[in-house]
Structure formats: structure tokens, C-alpha cells
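Job type: complex structure
Entries:
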Amino acid sequence: MTTALRGRAADRSRAAGLARPGRRRRGRPVALFLAPFLVPFAAFYLAPIGYTLYQSLFRMHRSGLGLTAPTQVFAGLSNYATALGDADFRGSLLRVLLIGLVQVPLMLLIALGLALLLDAKSTLFKRFFRLAFFLPYALPGVVGAIMWSYLVAPGLSPISAAARHLGLHLDLTSNAMLAPTIGNMLTWGWTGYNMLIIYSALQAIPAELSEAATMDGCSAFGIAWRIKVPLVRPALVLTTVFSIIGTAQLYNEPAILHNVAPNLSSTYTPIYAAYDAVNANNFNAAAAESVILALLAFVLSFGFLKLVQRKGAAL
Amino acid sequence: MTVRQSLSRWLVLGVLLVTSVYFLAPVWWLLVSSTKTNADLFSGNGFWFARFALFDNVHQVFAQQGGIYWQWLANSALYAVGGAAVSTLIAALAGYTLAKYRFRGREFTFNSVLAAVLVPQPLLAVPLYLMFSGVHLVNTYWAVLLPSMVSPFGVYLARIYAGSSVPDELIEAGRIDGAGEFRIFATIALRVMSPALVTIFLFQFVAIWTNYLLPVLMLANDRLQPVTVGIVGWQAQRGIGPSAVPFNIVITAAAISAIPLVILFLSLQRFWRAGLVAGSTK
């Protein structure tokens, strides 16, 4: 650690000591204790964000003949205008939005349903089912994606082979099937994780609540719908927000699917498009695209939070 | 039990069984396929065994490209163990400090850390790559290790846990006995926090082991790559030519790379639940 940092740490710990009068005066090493986390946090989280914002406002200016090194010039918001004017990028945003609109509610409904079934008293083999549903999450995402890419690859796919037996032609990597295939990969990989979060919240509900409702003549379905679901609302909100952010950063699945489906375009998702721009040595464009995507993910997840908060207050 | 009750019980069991087939069948396919020769992968029932070639496949995986698969596993282990160990320790210290000391800017610091949990990670990878190439860290172990040492989620978990489980009286007692602040943390708090430490370590270990984006950007040298990047690289080298990697090798390599995680999951289930519960009560 540099001496400058140490000096600052001492200053802050003095301030921290003052903030707590009446205590025995001794070094309160708050800054010293936080620094091992905050320094790398600033370097590897905050700095990249700042760097992206900064770069999104500049562009490389190349001289006409390309004989001199390109120089960086201020570009205002023109990178943003270019990104939003790019049909490929807009298409990727729309695609992810559509996948999210269909896949996230479907996955969370399944997760909620499974969690409620596992939480019901009379259900058999709970332990086995819990493990079975959670297993996909235990596989590295890349392994799951490689596995599914082969499960849908023409020539290798056992699903297509089964369809062939029934006299059907089914190509799960055709243009029309790409989005459902990716949606399936996400649902398969993340349902169990979301189920376990909801299930943990269900387990925290006192058993007396359900017992009292049963005595009042409430059916098992009624208990689930009227008592349990409202009580696990925070878990549902959390899983929704995580799922929105997860969908916004969709990359691994399409990138790996591309290995068996060359028709999948290199601008299929926004992150994919941004990486494409990086590969084309256009980091300024990639930066603007990243910022747009981050803003969109933020607006959607934050908007969702506000929406449920208002609804919650009205109830 | 009434007829209706037992009927609904069977119905529930049926639904759960069908769903578990959906979740288990692909993994079963992966296991079965890892025992097949490359030719057998393209014929017959994908969900049932053909000629048993598992050991031959494993041998081929570890022989491919001069046995680089060992190196990849070792790299993954280094990144995951090193990154998770360091990030757990500094997250524990930061979380404990945020929970047990009152100081100006405490809530601001904690809220920034929380907000960081919500930043899409892939967005950080490209600017990190550019920053690291500026200081010549790209294509070194540090390129992956350094960013892996930061776990905002770990700080969140450590703060919650320290706040609820490390009694102030214990810290005061340590002070009265004349122990320094760091010693109190290292000898008293860390011990009380150990269940949370296991959870933080586990989550970070898995996050690093399964990370693909950061290492694939940072590491062009395949001797430094973790196993995820290596396998996807093999998968991309399909088709004909001397460097083409047959499907059976990719499938078996993918299956092997999942084993450490599956073991971790099954043996440490309790700690998984702890982390997920902490997330759901936010």
C-alpha cells in the first residue's frame, strides 16, 4: 500500500473516531479495513463504468490517407445516435426484449408452481425433486450451452431424430426456431435457481398460518394462492429483477449456439453486437451500445420495482 | 385419506416427475454421450448407450493438443480457489466493518456495493480488457485473477451475517482485554462468521469457475485459459482439418469439467440455501 493511501486512511479513521463520541479514543481502522475491498472495487467495477461512459462520447478520427495515427476527438452523443440508428443493434434490443417478455414470466411461473408443489405437505420425494430441479444450475453455464447446442444441432439432435421417426422435419437451429431454442436453454438453466429462492422464502412462512387456514376450510390451492404467494412477493420481485438483468446480458448461449448454427447473426443480442463492434476495433461504438443496454436494463428493472411498490401500497 | 386427496397427490407426483424428466434428460444425454465413440453419436438412440468408450474418450480428452486439458483444469482451479479465497477475506473484512462500525458514508458505501450487484457483468469485461491492455496485463494470470477478487455480493452477505451474528458485547470484551481491532476481527469475528464465509467462498468459486466472458476476452494464450474457454475453443474447431476436434472429445471434456461443481453443490447444499435465503429477504 502506498503511503498516500495510508495517510488518507488515518485521516478517515480519525473522522470515524469523532463520529462516535463518548467512546474510548482509539484508532478506528474503518478506512484501513474497507480499503482492501474498496480499492479493487473502484479499479475493477467503477473505473470500467467511467471508462465506458467516457469512451462513448469520443470517436477515432482517421486522416484521409490513413498515413498518420488516428486521433481521438470529442463526438458528443453521435455514437449514441449511430447505435440507435443501426437497424442491427435495434433489432438485437428488440429480440432480447421479446425473449425476455415471453421467457421470464414463463420461467418464473414454472419456478413458483414447482416451489409451491414442493412446499405442500403431502408431496412425496421432495429431496429428490429439489435436487433434480436444481441440477442444471450446478452445471457451468458454458457446459449447459454446449450440451444444448448439440441437443439441437442438425444431424446430432436426438429431438430432431425423434421428430423424424414421427415423420416430421424439425430443425431447432432454423432462423424461426433460434429464439425459442435460446429461450428453452435459459428456462432449463435458471428455473431451478429461481425455484430454490422462492422455495426458501416459502419455508420461512410459519406453519401455523396454513394450519389455521385449513381449519377455516381453505383448500390447499386457496392457501397457496391467498396466503403463500402474497407472502413470497419479495422473492418473486427479486427473481424478476435478476431475470431482467440476466436477459439483458444474454451472450453465452447465442455465442455457443453459433458454433452449430452459423445462421445466427453476430449481432443477435446487444452484448454480442457490442463485442462485434470491439472486434471491428470500434470501441467507441461498443461503449455507446453498452451504455444504452445498461440504461435499458436499469430502467426496466427499476421500473418494475416502482410498479410493484405502488401496487403493493394500494393493496 | 379421501379419494380426492390421494388423486391430487398422484397428480402432483405426475407433474413433478414430468418436470424432472425435462431437467434431467439433457444431463443424462450428456452422460450417455460421453461414453460413446464419435461415430455412435450420430446414429441410434441418443438417450441410450452404444459401444462403451468412456475410458477411451477420457484418455483422448487428456491427450488432445498435448494434454492441455490438465493445464485448463489447473488454471480453473487456480483462478477459482485464488480469487474466491481472497475475495472472501476482503469481503468479510468489509462486511464486518460496514456492520459493526458507525462512520460517515457508511450507508452510501453499502448502497454503492449493492448497486454493483445489479450491474450486468459482461458490460465490465470489454472496458476492463482495454484498461488491462493499456497496462500490459492482458494475457497474464492477473488479468482474470484481479477482477475475480472483488465480490460485492460477498460484502452484502458478510454485512448481513456479521450484523446479526457477531454480538457487540463480544467485540467490547475483546477491546477490554486489550486486543487490537484487527485482532478482534481475525480471532473473534471471523470464527463467528465462518458459515457465511463458506457461502461467500462457494458462490464466488462457482462464479469464477463458470465465468466465460472475462477470460475469453483477456486470454488469447490457450495455456492460460480456464477450462470453460478451452472447451468452447475446441467446440469451435469443428469440421475437417488436422486441428478439428471430434464431438466425442468436446462432450466428454464438457462433462468432466462439470464434475467439481456438481460435487461442491451436492456436498455443501446447506450453504447454498444460506446464500439464496439471504438474497430473497433483501
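Summary: Chain A touches chain B through 99 residues (CB under 8 Å). The mean pLDDT of chain A is 85.
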